[in-house]
Design a protein that fits this description.
alpha/beta, about 30% helix, binds S-adenosylmethionine
Length: about 210
């Protein structure tokens, strides 16, 4: 993706983008209501949450990405369509606590997260226990993680990591597009690409339970 320095300026002033934080964001003020928040970490082109936002007006969607160029398209698209229930964070998931109070988010989507295949990069995986600890803080009790990936090793790692760190696993499939979840599935940009190359897609849900 080509570096676009002017995006910094655009995002700093953009009403849909949380760019730099002096204080925690007041999401009720941001959206103008207290509807549940669903957050996609590593949102990229955001085809997935844009569609969800169009179809679910009683949920607020936030797309987060650490690459500003990735957010250019969805931010423009959301503005053009006048979607009132979507916002974006230009930032790294490592800093999630700067953006959310405790018990603020109902669902986290991890769609085709970078698998970080080398062992020395294991801590960068978005399902590493350090990230799960952050998610547990911002999720409500009973909050969920929904994950899709084409990478078997990342999927296996995620199943183990979630189950060992306080998430109850459910609705798991090793072949999403030939499963009962296919009908309601909304495809992401990467999903379309991997599917066209004949790859299978793995899916899981984890529910956060304190007891
Ligand atoms: C492979 S793309 C997937 C994009 C989209 N979810 C999809 O399925 O089409 C992964 C995205 O995650 C973003 N990303 C990776 N690590 C991140 C992090 N720690 N915090 C925020 N975004 C991250 C990358 O910049 C990239 O846009």
């Amino acid at each position: 993706m080509r570096n676009k320095p002017h995006l910094e300026e655009k995002f700093k002033k953009h009403p849909l983008v949380i760019y730099k934080l002096e204080d925690k964001v007041n999401w009720v003020n941001f959206f103008g209501n207290n509807h549940p928040i669903h957050l996609e970490i590593g949102t990229g082109r955001s085809d997935f949450i844009l569609k969800l936002a169009r179809e679910n007006h009683d949920i607020n969607f936030i797309g987060m990405d650490k690459v500003k160029e990735a957010l250019n398209y969805p931010v423009s698209k959301a503005k053009e369509e006048g979607l009132p229930n979507i916002g974006f964070i230009y930032g790294d998931a490592r800093n999630l606590r700067e953006y959310f109070d405790d018990d603020r988010v109902s669902r986290i989507y991890l769609n085709f997260s970078d698998p970080w295949t080398k062992r020395k990069h294991i801590k960068r995986r978005l399902t590493h226990k350090d990230f799960l600890e952050l998610y547990k803080k911002i999720l409500i009790e009973g909050g969920e993680i929904h994950l899709k990936t084409d990478d078997y090793n990342f999927f296996k790692f995620s199943l183990e990591s979630l189950s060992q760190n306080g998430f109850l696993l459910r609705n798991i499939t090793f072949d999403l597009h030939h499963s009962k979840f296919a009908e309601d599935n909304i495809m992401t940009g990467y999903e379309k690409r991997w599917l066209s190359e004949g790859k299978g897609i793995f899916r899981l849900e984890g529910v956060f339970k304190t007891e």
